[in-house]
Amino acid sequence: MATAPSKAATALPAKQLARIREQLKECAASLGGEVSARARAAQLAETYLGLDDGGRHEFLRLIALEFGPDPKRVATAHSAYQQAVGSPAQWDAEAALRAAMRSSRIRILTQFNAIPQGVKFLVDLRADLLRFLDKDPELKALDRELENRLTSWFDVGFLEISRLTWQAPAALLEKLIQYEAVHEIRSWKDLKNRLDSDRRCYAFFHPRMPVEPLIFVEVALVNKLSDSVQHLLDEDAPTADPHRADTAIFYSISNTQVGLRGVSFGNFLLKRVIDDLKRDFPRLKTFATLSPLPTLRLWADRNPEVFAACFAPDLAKIAKHAGIEPDADALRALLPKGEWAADARLARLIEPGLVRLAARYLLTGKSGDKPFDPVARFHLGNGARVERLNFLADTAAKGFKQSYGMMVNYLYEPDDLEANVDAFVREGRLAAVAAVRHAAKG
Amino acid sequence: MATAPSKAATALPAKQLARIREQLKECAASLGGEVSARARAAQLAETYLGLDDGGRHEFLRLIALEFGPDPKRVATAHSAYQQAVGSPAQWDAEAALRAAMRSSRIRILTQFNAIPQGVKFLVDLRADLLRFLDKDPELKALDRELENRLTSWFDVGFLEISRLTWQAPAALLEKLIQYEAVHEIRSWKDLKNRLDSDRRCYAFFHPRMPVEPLIFVEVALVNKLSDSVQHLLDEDAPTADPHRADTAIFYSISNTQVGLRGVSFGNFLLKRVIDDLKRDFPRLKTFATLSPLPTLRLWADRNPEVFAACFAPDLAKIAKHAGIEPDADALRALLPKGEWAADARLARLIEPGLVRLAARYLLTGKSGDKPFDPVARFHLGNGARVERLNFLADTAAKGFKQSYGMMVNYLYEPDDLEANVDAFVREGRLAAVAAVRHAAKG
Amino acid sequence: MATAPSKAATALPAKQLARIREQLKECAASLGGEVSARARAAQLAETYLGLDDGGRHEFLRLIALEFGPDPKRVATAHSAYQQAVGSPAQWDAEAALRAAMRSSRIRILTQFNAIPQGVKFLVDLRADLLRFLDKDPELKALDRELENRLTSWFDVGFLEISRLTWQAPAALLEKLIQYEAVHEIRSWKDLKNRLDSDRRCYAFFHPRMPVEPLIFVEVALVNKLSDSVQHLLDEDAPTADPHRADTAIFYSISNTQVGLRGVSFGNFLLKRVIDDLKRDFPRLKTFATLSPLPTLRLWADRNPEVFAACFAPDLAKIAKHAGIEPDADALRALLPKGEWAADARLARLIEPGLVRLAARYLLTGKSGDKPFDPVARFHLGNGARVERLNFLADTAAKGFKQSYGMMVNYLYEPDDLEANVDAFVREGRLAAVAAVRHAAKG
Amino acid sequence: MATAPSKAATALPAKQLARIREQLKECAASLGGEVSARARAAQLAETYLGLDDGGRHEFLRLIALEFGPDPKRVATAHSAYQQAVGSPAQWDAEAALRAAMRSSRIRILTQFNAIPQGVKFLVDLRADLLRFLDKDPELKALDRELENRLTSWFDVGFLEISRLTWQAPAALLEKLIQYEAVHEIRSWKDLKNRLDSDRRCYAFFHPRMPVEPLIFVEVALVNKLSDSVQHLLDEDAPTADPHRADTAIFYSISNTQVGLRGVSFGNFLLKRVIDDLKRDFPRLKTFATLSPLPTLRLWADRNPEVFAACFAPDLAKIAKHAGIEPDADALRALLPKGEWAADARLARLIEPGLVRLAARYLLTGKSGDKPFDPVARFHLGNGARVERLNFLADTAAKGFKQSYGMMVNYLYEPDDLEANVDAFVREGRLAAVAAVRHAAKG
């Protein structure tokens, strides 16, 4: 497995750099045949793993800048192609242009696939690349080529869905603890509780990365829409009979491989999980999430006037009860701390404004032409709709800090998904129930 | 599985064609989201399977000609790219040009991967495409795109090598009988004999085509280089102790998937089989083939003067003994029939000329700058060398018909492979032992 | 695997016999600890495999006669037991008597279990034992001890039911060809046909004999009760849709291990197969066999007066049409040959008598207090009932030879099985439909 | 799985008892056939699981006392047997006597095997039985029959050895934590450390109890004999390269199934583990344990005069340094507490006496004619020898409490095992190195 480099970022000695360049050239030329070339590529991959961040950056720059296509050859092929357009020769010319565009970069990277766990190596190499890319945009062509290759290799048709249970290898379950990105798994006992008979956990795997879940989703089989994640994760709560459940709640979805950014399969995973659950539990009627609003507070801080407007009707009462200045900024400072939630009467005063704020955030907050909230982008992009906002639904410290304790249910209504996707993609229209639309306006 | 179409090749009704075009457009645009698009693509794939040859051809032409890149968009991106060359913007511009080149064709084809056994479907679709391509070169751009995608998907890093034994599923072993391309497997008894303890059979598999061997090789563990394939395949021959063998003979290598033309992995298979055999049988010293010369007769018929020259010294004696005209053409007509082999004295007379002919054929026969013999192209391209020519080594009817009963051993000498590959690729130099070189000149 | 000994039956040299006796004593005493004793037992087992029939017989006699319990120790323990009966000491005394009865024989045999495939070795050893037992009743105590041990080891709770398909290992399917005892499997094509989608084949396996089916049953999924086995086995018949079938026909049940005589599991296999089929094919309503009457002709030859009585009404017409003497013996000689079946009119004349004969045979033919027909013993003992007699149902040579072409359907009516078993076991009452009872009387 | 009964021990209502008796009779008689009988037995097994301790006891008494053999039938068969002794009829008569001894008890218990996890059910039922047996010796005959049946079913030839790694199912590894009987596994981190690359863990499994290890052994691959279990279990110690190790230390062996008392396989497990390790690590030269002396303190308390004698030479100095009365009893009270170990000088004073005590305990302490120490009984019975006594080798509270911190290495010297076993079994001779013998005398 690609181990993390030491963070130090020193430049490579010129001699070593020259040797790497030479080896890359040999790989690109496949000297001595494909079989030998792969053997050499494996050595080069080992070299890469031994480098620190600075060395890896230079290594990748070498590939990015010196092993691209030849612009002159591209120009010639392009000119022939444009002349052929409209004639029967167009298609041959197109193939020739495509051949001229083919770079040695991807040839070299593909050869790295020869090492054991080569796919995981390339995914991790891409993670490195993405880190460097922020400050070094010249790596972009290489990144795009690698992203395309990974998109091809991780086509959803190749992925295997597996249900993970307490019978799964400990080495695999340990990865869930490590990768869980939404609600931290605190212990093996917590993990076992999440795999209990009224729970389901599904993951996608690639046949060449057998103990690395690519993405996984945790599901609770319950009655009625859940409105509290702490309740779902309570290890001492009794186990319910899943065959009497009417609702499946997706309460955590985690992508695990940074290096697969831009390669999407979450939508397919949900589709297949819903199909699987329907088959096993015919009484299930509702498929929904209990999702965080991870950037609600960030957005509120950037849009203090919206925050103030949402709380205007109740601000005076809240301030008096809470013992703060009757000032929206003071309230904004108070809410992330969470202590206010212990005071039931205060909470009741805060609730209307907070629901209003969350509704506006979801329905009007934008990043470009997409929703500001990244989780909303994913679920609305899949065709789900905003079903319900839940006050005091995540009372963990992180929950208050990110979203003042608010959570949201996105509902997957199989018959509406296609139309919702189209409305979302073409018109940017967001699916939401009337109550939430109303709250946003109220 | 992609079933063979009825051979009739009728045009599609205009209405059906229009509907298919519409569906392809929807796939290309991913209307309703990726998940729905794949579901529609699956229906389209089913439609394809129901078409006859003519219908399939039109279907593929539609994709090839109407879903390619937009030449204008390509021109714009290319122009920006050429202007950026040498500046830091080059790499972004390259990525943009590459994006402009990306066609909907491959997007559509990839979506077909969603059907069960989707990979096999695309491999078989390529087999159709290759058939149509002969007469319809406008399919070339599509074919190249599909070939590239299959090359990416069938990267050797994804393939699994398996040893096939009598313990393998009958449904899988049946495929060996069906696909064996060199020496026909006549019965289950013949097959069982080829999987006996002094034999090995290895195949490459793709994780998504689990009961489809992509290529397989049959190996006999023997003492000394084999010089007769009938002896190797004799079901009544006693089973030898493989742990005392010093030589592994690869006596049959069969590619099974027409649709993977241009995607090579035979060299990797041999490499891994040799590694595996060395580990299991440390006494093995020699790794060699016993290979046919499938186009020897074809080449001789095209080069009658070479044939005549090879037999000139002995022609008179041969003709007298065989009772034919003392004429090279008469001899050329006699040899493919094989009856002459029963006459030991006649055979002795024929042998020197035939060995000479085979040596010249191998070492001087060309197709372009490559050897004329396709099997030689493969093994010499892998770095093997021509080790020995074997007279009356394949006395089956097909053996006489194709190569007058001659066979050849190619030797895989691990230490020489790289140098041989380089000499072959760069200088077109063929590796052969002195005896064979001498015979070619003699 | 226990290979068959050469049939020659020579006595063991005295010296070898003495050495074997010594080794058996060491095993019985577990000298050097259990671990060493097993290692020595393994050598002894190898010795056994190397012996011819005579040697094996002597080997087994040694164990049978010299390693039994000590009669004096048994007498003492028995006397103590009888005195303790009725007192609290009875149970301790019973355990002591049981300990005195424990022989070294079974200890030795169990140690043989240590060799690889030890279970199969013991099953095959029992097959040897049964062969010798016919002529050497002194082996009986050993045979019973071994039978008890095998009964314990092959308890149905340990057996695994598996569905065998064309995906099963060839080495396993080959065993079906070898073991099929009812309707010979003629070729791999015949076998594949019997595993087609409208067929099922199930077998019981022991976890320590993984490629040895213990018993297997072949099932056809059809509409209506089958009345012809040739029709069922027709390789060219179209494959039916099993999901539309209403009837499962068990047309062949084969026990494979001679050494497991007396260990029964056929009834459990049918029970579990029926459960499995019901789950997979809810439309199935009828579970029945199409069974041979393997000893019909034998019984008729032993009871010529019954035969004569059955055919009396039609004998004159039959004889005239067939051109034989109007004599029941002549008819008895004619029927096994089968040519008469080609003459439709003659067949029509013969049918009533033959059905009558078969009905009487089934319902009145006895061996002790059980049905004479071994297949009837099995199915009626399981609670099935005689449902229908089928004329010209097995027109293979063996079918005519054994039963004049007659076959029978036994019906498994789940709700009646228990009551039928009790009636059969307690009162010897046979379950049969009225039509068959009527035929028997007619 | 057989769940633990509530501890309350109430008598069964007469009505329920009568119904159970009736059901047991039906099982014993196999009314309605074997298949139905097993179905009824399964219900009875469920009934058993629902009973509390008192109910289970009565249930088992029913089987024990009312379903045994018929003493009169036994008497008759025995008399016939004794008369036949010496004649050819002996063997038939022996089989008949054996049949008369066969009880319905074991028939009933075997039928319980039909429930899912039936084997585990019977093992747990035996655990119940052993608990009741202490106070109710009338259960003995039943217990012995069940022990015999379990001995037959758990024959080592049926057990599978598996190496347990971090790749094993979490549900299985959780069992290790639960069953570890020697050195408690404190956490999943501790467990993972015990499965690291310089560790091995092996277990025996029965094919019908797939996630229940029957016995497992933990091994450390080290250099030189280990003398401290805390060092072995240190999670922060660096992982050693197992391929450079010369010694395998078995530091924990745990039997897991109370119900299998009297069924032994620990010796076979060690034999197979040693074979496996030798194959994987050819450099291993020494196979030894690091074992507790679990009853050292108990024995010392029972033999205060031996204790006093061992410490006599140093008692005055020890007492002075430790600040206790110069009295052996005071020292015996001090040692289990362990604080003295922190004082290096005091520890040095105590060491000679403690080593002497441990040596005498091991070599002279007896329970009947076997060693007093249960671990010694096991290892010396397997042919190992006492190799070294280790002072302050287990400094956990339990270590001081049971054995004043002492541990012992037993050495498995393959070439000596057989002779040692024989000396142990026949003459009660204990294998020990001279140094230990010397210490015992000193």
From TrEMBL, chains A, B, C, D:
Q: Which regions span the lipid bilayer?
A: none
Q: Could you tell me what this protein is called?
A: Malonyl-CoA decarboxylase
Source superkingdom? Bacteria
Q: Which Gene3D superfamilies match?
A: Malonyl-CoA decarboxylase, catalytic domain, Malonyl-CoA decarboxylase, oligemerization domain
Q: Taking every annotated instance into account, which residue ranges of this chain make up the domain Malonyl-CoA decarboxylase N-terminal?
A: 67-154
- Domain named Malonyl-CoA decarboxylase C-terminal: residues: 157-413
